[in-house]
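Section handout 9: paired folding examples.
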Amino acid sequence: MSEGLILTIIIAYFGVLILMSYITSRGADTNSFFVGNKESKWYVVAFGMIGASLSGVTFISVPGWVDGKQFAYMQIVLGYLVGYLVVAYVLLPIYYRMNLISIYGYLEDRFGAWTYKTGASLFLLSRIVGASIRLLLAATVFHEFIFAKWGIPFAATVTFSILFIWLCTFKGGIKTIVWTDTLQTLFMLLSLGIAIYLISDSLGFSEQGGLVKVISESKYSKIFFFEEMGANNYFWKQFIAGMFITIGMTGLDQDLMQKNLSCKNIKEAQKNMVSFAFVLTIVNLAFLVLGATLFMYAQKHGVEIPMHDGKARTDLLFPTLALGDYFPQIVGVFFILGLFAATYASADSALASLTTSVCVDFIGVRKMEEAQQKKWKDRVHVGMSVVLLIVILVLNEFMSANAIEQILIFASFTYGPLIGIFAFGIFTKRTLNKDKYSLFTAIAAIILTTILFIVTNKAKEITAFFELDKPFDIGFKIGAELIIYNAIITFVILWFVSKKKAA
């Protein structure tokens, strides 16, 4: 696929989104930016959230997950489904009852200013790194297959990506994003469906009994793993981890909750969340089916796993096949559209939510006049764009392996304390001896879970470092379920530094 055609697709796509941003942001004020004036339709929010939740990482990395781990990711996805129900019927009622703009306002009301700032800080750290990993993966694809061939540096590719996101969100914020995400989700799902159909057709699946039969009989299709309790892919570990990840990364995340809070009322927000959860489960399964077809194609035609900086990258197989001379050109066209749609549906809402959190949680703009609010919002919006740019360039020097794994592991460290703090506030009637203890508790929980993760997953490295004759291995590895241990540790520490509420 020629670089000129790819660039034409990109320019046309950006043009459509910028036009849509212009139309939807007319008459927008800071209230539009933060909560869309509480006028968003629940079904529009639900559909757009699919693209925002999945991102370019899902579009590339989930198919790449299939090679070594089969369909085990569905165990986490089924946990997601239960987690979304908890968000809909436990957390959303609290947020709507308190009429919150930033969900971390609950922590200020329940404990105080220190806990409020701690929760907001954990979100900022989590979302900055998570959004940066997502954008980095997409920028790597764009750069390797387009801009690098023209001698454009990687930093310029990333800058261009950030600039586009800023242009689409700087005025309308959530009011615009609700609609642009809907369009981008449509592009992403079309790309997914067309890619599965064309690739399976090229492999002759129809002559072999159809797509479902071929995939179900392949070596990739195993979903449930109950054999080894200590393994990372053990069902109950991944299912419960998925539930906690959703509660943390969705229910306690300003980014995705900001869209829900733009609905007219709690009933519409709950309809949005439940319908979104079931559709998202099906879409994730479709991405795994796509991954199986990609690896079956690569095996049949002798295509090797792509390398990046000397390391095997299964998450680059899809772009390698789609943009190479392997499939009909239409696959490459829809791959570009799908990747852009998935990446920017996630990134634009991330930038808007980061701006909202800094403005509302740390600067306190809601107490200012509209002119001052707008001035601060515009400054912070530019500042957060620069922060994302810097973090992406730093991560580019260190990131390896499958991006979806890295996001889930990182989320375990940062969202775990958030879950623990919120759970302590919701399910107990205790109050902290000192409000600032929440900050120290979060730091302690992160340190303890880091040690736990290293001990259980880096046994060989520890053995080699201390030059031990006998291998150091406890026979138990921790993966995404680290978020559970983190939340429990946070909850327990908070219990010991708290007291019963005065009557």
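Moving on to protein 2 of 2.
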Amino acid sequence: MPITYHPAEDVQSLVREVIKRLSLTHIDPNRVFCFRSRGSRSRRGIARCYSLSKIWQKALSIPSYYIVEVISERYDGLSDENKVKVIIHELLHIPKAFGGGLRPHIGCVTRRTVEENYCRFIASKNQSGDRNPSP
């Protein structure tokens, strides 16, 4: 069965919320697109972050864009807490320059940084009066 891709409005909303609550001002939410895939043979992946490389930006005369893909078979069954953590993880791959590159796991995108940012996300929700930790 081939992989299919569909826009993921629920993920897009969560991405926007995470960007806002964590003050990830270097990320332009209008240039991050979210898709849900079905049919992936990936054994471990839950989500992926893609970038439009510099060479494509130059060739097409357009700015950088990013895509967050969630793999339906693994993402959809997660708890709301884990969905937020997955989105935080993927957004941490986007560098401060927002120029088309991706940050690596080693030293940048770690379990620790995801947990720290998740705690900040929950604290922001609590400060705003929204006590529900779900997205």
